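At this stage, I wrote out one protein, both as residues and as discrete backbone shape codes, and that material follows here.
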Amino acid sequence: MPGLLSLANELILSIADELDTRKIFRGTCRQINAVVSPRVFSYITIDIHEERLDVGISQLEALATRSTCTAEYVRTIDIRRLAPNYGPNMGYTFVNGKFVVDEDPKDPKTNWAQEKMRELLPGALSALKGATTAIWKACDRDPDWVSVLVSEFLGTLPALDSLHLIAPCEQFVPHLNRLRISSLTKLVVSSGPDAAIAKIIANNPCLTHLDVLVFRTFGSGDITTLHSLLEDVPLGQPLRLEHLRIGGCHIRFDHEILPHLRHLRSLKLSYLNFGPPRDLWRTVWRARIPLEAVTALVNDDLIDYLASVTGIKKIGLLGANTDVLANRFFTKVVPRHSKTLVSLSICLSSEAMVLRKHNASILIECTQLSRLTIAIDTSPMGKGRRSWTIS
């Protein structure tokens, strides 16, 4: 009778993915170890702070001295705090409209960890040359030399094509301005100074996927625009964006922005300060931008756009709407894309968008639909209305 080892590698990996004890499963025999190890060790987190100094320094030492063979399998690097003095009791003082980190308390173990980190971090990072994705959540207690080192390291990765920057602080702007990665195609930035984001975008002209979410303090007066994010891109050398997600920005598609969108396939406007301009979707239609996926706040203009084009594969509707818009969506939009629609997400506060018999009969005509997120009326069961994802 065929046993586990007779299965194809793909099936063994599928079994491993379902287990909470994948590392134990990996150790059952050499054959399974060879198949599962690249998956188990494909993701590494480097996080050094007050509460995990010993673990963090031991990890750096293992990587730097090459005493572990797992580094060769790493494809995603998640760099978090590189600040031995970061801890639950750290404090901030509000000075001149900004929070300033309090002076570090002197601690022998913290000083030891800082010295070891300076010694080991360069070698540890150099062991991770196979990474294709990097996530960097900069900490305001990271030393300046760490910012320089990480920025330079990212620029040396030969196959890095995806970079996630989470809330980069003002102190890292000079280092981020120099960040150039020849293979980078995907950039995800969650907040951060506009000037730094614009410089990173301009320095990496091969970007095809841009995802920017900007969070501003209420009443700060700062306004981020799509124009400000793309202002450093050289004239006559537009980006060839295929995927664009923008949140918290004021956007306008005009002669300065449209050249970057000629190849756009996916557009997601997750939330917008001031809302989208009234002519945005009309501009997309007139420019003949070949969108296949759209997620945005629903309004008359979006419904008009979706009802005037064909071939959309993914639709996401956000915000609130009226029964009139809901009726137009199900009668005018859904039939228009019934042969191509594979994903539909409706996150709206409207009774008319709840899945019921009349709109279920329309959705059932979408022969390619494989994922549906919609509220279902469960009131006959005494449970009210709930949101369900059906795959």
User: Anything to note?
Assistant: The longest strand covers residues 76-82. The two ends are 35 Å apart (CA to CA). The chain has a mean pLDDT of 84. Residues 108-126 form the longest helix (19 residues).
